[in-house]
Design brief:
2 copies of one chain form a homodimer.
Chain A lengths: L2 H19 L7 H14 L6 H12 L8 H18 L9 E2 L2 E2 L1 H5 L1 H20 L6 H15 L4 H11 L7 H26 L4 H28 L2 H4 L5 H4 L5 H27 L4 H11 L4
Antiparallel strand pairs in A: 1-2
């Protein structure tokens, strides 16, 4: 299989598992609508980067990637929960997500809050109930996953992001820390979970996390750059929104050229970490694809 | 120790552990405010019924109740997360909770959403990171906990409750099912988790869950009754709110006397289940206290 075929097969497996895990084996019409709201956002697509990283790390380190179906599905649910809640009127107030009405526009605000809530909890049950992982593996995965989502992870990052919006003196260090929490943590834990499913050593897991944090940061800086260099058509969402919202980004701090240089340096670091943890050619191609993207 | 001393000691232990688990070992002022918002709601008090049940079942079945600190803290955090989100403007829109401004009135709506989110995820990490439970025990606890919170548990119950508000033809069976999901599941899983920490058999766990579901249902019917028979002063919240909101309750279905009779029958069932699973005198007294309460 070449890179594109492999990527397509991971994505297909991801989507089949999301369907399997969020099914309609429940009792009432109201609960059924909740499952619909969850599926609506789960099926909205996106790049499925996080589950792909889980599978790719598992396979790169000699594991059978189907062993990682539970954590791969879990991380995509957590990501989806964060998108649903971020779009709420009290948060970023976005009416559209990937060209479709956002969850609260389609199902109402109360149902969107509850769909996000259900998607924040279901992942832990899916991992605990998995038929192939050992109890020790499950506990290690859940411990890392909960930390990467919580106060000092993704949710903490969202809180810092909100606080930064009211400031004009955000430093590079503070911006890096916010990106690390908000985006880096979920990407790093995806890599770590794939490693755990392959029985990798702590040293390998640590290098895989380094890769994940570098990838996450470079990904965000590219986002900053695309917001000023892309077109709304190419990007699939309005460009120039960072400037309109007075956000501090790597571009507002350093300009496009220097931001691109920083992104390239961080990408080089990511590739070094990949070498250290025995990353595959697939992972190298994936990294290049994500950082040369146009949207 | 008599009943009241024992109850006070469980509650004291609960509150000390909540403080310990939701501490300020994080980096930024924004994250610190998130922890404050979480603690604000965690410290708002309440009866601490769920952690008390975890400890009391563990001890009744011959276990050391301090082994159950992680699941007991976890269940109170989950309960608190549900109260924060239920109070949001898009949900029940309550400005007060236990006589204090609700989380979103104090910290703003975005922070309240995120504080609830963080309290929905932290519990799973606390259980996974616990130093005394085995991996097998942790996995069994997390599996049950996630189910009791999710689509077919507490969150599913809230969805049914919202749907019922728009209906005038809710049957007793449907009302019972809604109460079972919304309240019963968290109470039953509290009992089950205490049993697991004591190494109890599946048969005992099953009887303990039966007790929990009966207690939860009786508790809700008493709530229905107090809403029409109590005073605002005694109850600590406005009475008559069910009627004002056109809610179907056991009182609107059957009147106060018949509702009281049903609650008494369910209490008798709860006591039978307690006998079956080897429940203690403390648990019997706790059951009576909860069902003879005035608020």
């Amino acid at each position: 299989m070449n890179f594109n075929e492999k990527l397509a097969s991971y994505i297909e497996y991801t989507e089949a598992n999301l369907k399997k895990y969020n099914n309609h084996d429940i009792s009432t019409a109201a609960q059924s609508e909740l499952v619909d709201a969850m599926n609506y956002s789960l099926e909205a697509g996106g790049k499925r980067i996080r589950p792909v990283l889980v599978y790719a790390f598992c396979e790169a380190l000699g594991g059978d990637y189907t062993r990682a179906a539970a954590p791969a599905s879990a991380i995509e649910m957590i990501h989806t929960f964060s998108l649903i809640h971020d779009d709420l009127p009290a948060m970023d107030d976005d009416d559209f997500r990937r060209g479709k009405p956002s969850c609260h526009k389609k199902y109402g605000e109360a149902m969107a809050i509850l769909a996000g809530d259900a998607l924040s909890v279901l992942p832990f049950g899916i991992i605990a109930d998995d038929a192939v992982l050992t109890s020790d593996e499950k506990v290690r995965i859940i411990s890392r996953l909960a930390k990467s989502v919580g106060r000092s992870g993704m949710i903490g990052g969202q809180v810092i992001d909100m606080a930064n919006e009211e400031r004009t003196d955000v430093t590079e260090e503070q911006l890096r820390y916010m990106y690390r929490c908000k985006t880096g943590e979920l990407i790093a834990v995806s890599c770590a979970m794939g490693c755990i499913c392959a029985g990798a050593s702590d040293e390998v897991i640590s290098a895989a996390c380094d890769y994940g944090f570098s990838l996450g940061l470079a990904f965000q800086i590219i986002d900053d750059i695309l917001d000023v260099t892309s077109t709304t058509e190419e990007l699939g969402k309005p460009v120039g929104s960072d400037e309109a919202e007075n956000k501090t980004t790597f571009v507002t701090l350093y300009g496009v050229d220097k931001a691109r240089e920083i992104a390239d340096n961080i990408t080089a670091q990511a590739m070094e970490s990949l070498d250290k943890c025995g990353g595959s050619d697939f992972l190298r191609e994936l990294t290049e694809m994500l950082l040369n993207r146009k949207n």
